[in-house]
C-alpha cells in the first residue's frame, strides 16, 4: 500500500518541481535580459562631428541622418552646417569637427600647411555658370570667382577656350551674385543650389558636360580623426553609400533634405535644383589629382613635393 502511494506521489512531485523551475526561469531571465541591455547601453557608440557646406553635395549626408542610416551603421553623427570656408577651417583647426566637406584645391593647399587633412570620399556637386543672356556673342567677358579655388579652375575650363576672361575675385556668394545680376560682371560661378537662386532672378544657368572630368569636391578628416576614429569613419561612409542608393531610387529625398537643412532657400527652386549623379563611394584618380595640383601650383606660385596618394585614404570606402 505504501509503495502504491509513493508511486502515485512521485509523478505529482516531479510535475510540481517542473512548475517551480519554469516560474523561476520566467523570473530570472527578464532580469538577465535587462542586465544585458543595460550593459550594451553602457558601451559607447562611436561618434563623429562633420562639417557640411551649403551645397548639393550635402544631400546624401542629410538623407542618411533623416533615414537613420548612421544609427543603423552604429555611429552617432552630428552634421554641422557652415556658410563659408573660413568658419569651416576654424572649426577644423580648433577640433569642433572631425572632418568636413571641402575641395581638392583646398586639400592641396592644406596639405602644404602645418595642419594636414586626409581625403576619404569624393562628393558630388555642381558649379553652374550664371550669365546674362547673350554670353555666346561676347568674346571678352568679366567673371566673378574666388582666386585659390576650384571655381577659378572651372572658369578657365568653361570659358578659356572661347573667351578672353577678366577675373574679379569675390569670395562671398551673395556679393558675387549681385554683381552678375546688376550687370557689373558678365558671368559668375556658383555652387548649386545657389545657382538656382540666380536663375530665379533672371540669369541663365549654364552647364558644361564633361567638365570637370572627375569630382572636385571631397570629404576630408583630420589626421587625429583618421587615426583614432577609424571604425566610426568606416560606419559613416557605409551609411553614406546607403543614402546614395536611396537617392538613386527616389531623388526627391535629396531635394527635401536640401530644402530642410540649407537655410533661406526659396521654395520656388525646389524642383529646379540641378542634382548631380550621386555616385557610390570613390576617390579621385592619381592623374586627376596631378592635374589639379599642377593648376594650383600655377595660381599659388608654389611647388608641391608631396604625392597625391599622401592626401588620400581609401580604407574607409573599401568594399562599398
In short:
This protein is of the alpha/beta class and 320 residues long. The protein has helices at residues 2-42, 59-67, 69-73, 85-93, 104-111, 150-159, 173-181, 194-200, 223-228, 230-249, 252-261, 286-300; strands spanning 47-53, 76-82, 99-103, 117-123, 129-131, 140-145, 164-169, 187-189, 204-206, 217-222. The protein is globular, with a radius of gyration of 28 Å.
What are its keywords?
D-Maltodextrin-Binding Protein, domain 2; 47% helix; globular; 17% strand; five-stranded mixed beta sheet; 12 helices; 2 domains; alpha/beta; 320 residues
Question: What's the CATH H-level superfamily name of the largest domain?
Answer: Periplasmic binding protein-like II
Low-confidence runs: 1-5, 35-42
Question: What's the Cα radius of gyration?
Answer: 28 Å
* Outline type: globular
Mean pLDDT: 90
Largest sheet: 5 strands, mixed
CATH architecture of the largest domain: 3-Layer(aba) Sandwich
Percentage of residues assigned to helices: 40-55%
Sheet with most strands: strand arrangement? 2-1-3-10-4
Count of helical regions: 12
CATH class of the largest domain: Alpha Beta
Explained architecture:
It is a single chain. This protein is α/β, with parallel strands linked by helices and 320 residues long. Helices cover 47% and strands 17% of the residues. It is built from twelve helices and ten strands. α5 (104-111) crosses α12 (286-300). The protein folds into two domains: 47-125 and 215-317, D-Maltodextrin-Binding Protein, domain 2; 129-206, Periplasmic binding protein-like II (D-Maltodextrin-Binding Protein, domain 2). Residues 1-5 and 35-42 have low confidence and may be disordered. It is globular. It has helices at residues 2-42, 59-67, 69-73, 85-93, 104-111, 150-159, 173-181, 194-200, 223-228, 230-249, 252-261, 286-300, and strands at residues 47-53, 76-82, 99-103, 117-123, 129-131, 140-145, 164-169, 187-189, 204-206, 217-222.
Amino acid at each position: 500500500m505504501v509503495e502504491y502511494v509513493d508511486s502515485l506521489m512521485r509523478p505529482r512531485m516531479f510535475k510540481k518541481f517542473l512548475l517551480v523551475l519554469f516560474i523561476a526561469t520566467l523570473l530570472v531571465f527578464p532580469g538577465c535580459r535587462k542586465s544585458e541591455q543595460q550593459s550594451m547601453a553602457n558601451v559607447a557608440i562611436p561618434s563623429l562631428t562633420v562639417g557640411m557646406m551649403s551645397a548639393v553635395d550635402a544631400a546624401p549626408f542629410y538623407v542618411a541622418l533623416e533615414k537613420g542610416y548612421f544609427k543603423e551603421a552604429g555611429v552617432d553623427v552630428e552634421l554641422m552646417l557652415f556658410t563659408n570656408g573660413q568658419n569651416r577651417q576654424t572649426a577644423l583647426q580648433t577640433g569642433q569637427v572631425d572632418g568636413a566637406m571641402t575641395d581638392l584645391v583646398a586639400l592641396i593647399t592644406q596639405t602644404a600647411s602645418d595642419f594636414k587633412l586626409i581625403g576619404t570620399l569624393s562628393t558630388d556637386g555642381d558649379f553652374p555658370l550664371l550669365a546674362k543672356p547673350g554670353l555666346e556673342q561676347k568674346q571678352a567677358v568679366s567673371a566673378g570667382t574666388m582666386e585659390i579655388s576650384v571655381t577659378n579652375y572651372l572658369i578657365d575650363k568653361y570659358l578659356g577656350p572661347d573667351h578672353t576672361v577678366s577675373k574679379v575675385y569675390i569670395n562671398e556668394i551673395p556679393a558675387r551674385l549681385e554683381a552678375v545680376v546688376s550687370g557689373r560682371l558678365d558671368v559668375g560661378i556658383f555652387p548649386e543650389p545657389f545657382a538656382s537662386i540666380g536663375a530665379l532672378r533672371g540669369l541663365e544657368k549654364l552647364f558644361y558636360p564633361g567638365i570637370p572630368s572627375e569630382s572636385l569636391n571631397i570629404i576630408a578628416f583630420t589626421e587625429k580623426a583618421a587615426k583614432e576614429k577609424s571604425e566610426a569613419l568606416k560606419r559613416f561612409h557605409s551609411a553614406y553609400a546607403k543614402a546614395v542608393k536611396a537617392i538613386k531610387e527616389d531623388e526627391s529625398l535629396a531635394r527635401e533634405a536640401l530644402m530642410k537643412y540649407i537655410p533661406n532657400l526659396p521654395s520656388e527652386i525646389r524642383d529646379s535644383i540641378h542634382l548631380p549623379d550621386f555616385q557610390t563611394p570613390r576617390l579621385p584618380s592619381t592623374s586627376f589629382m596631378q592635374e589639379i595640383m599642377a593648376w594650383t601650383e600655377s595660381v599659388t606660385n608654389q611647388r608641391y613635393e608631396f604625392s597625391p596618394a599622401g592626401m588620400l585614404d581609401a580604407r574607409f570606402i573599401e568594399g562599398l
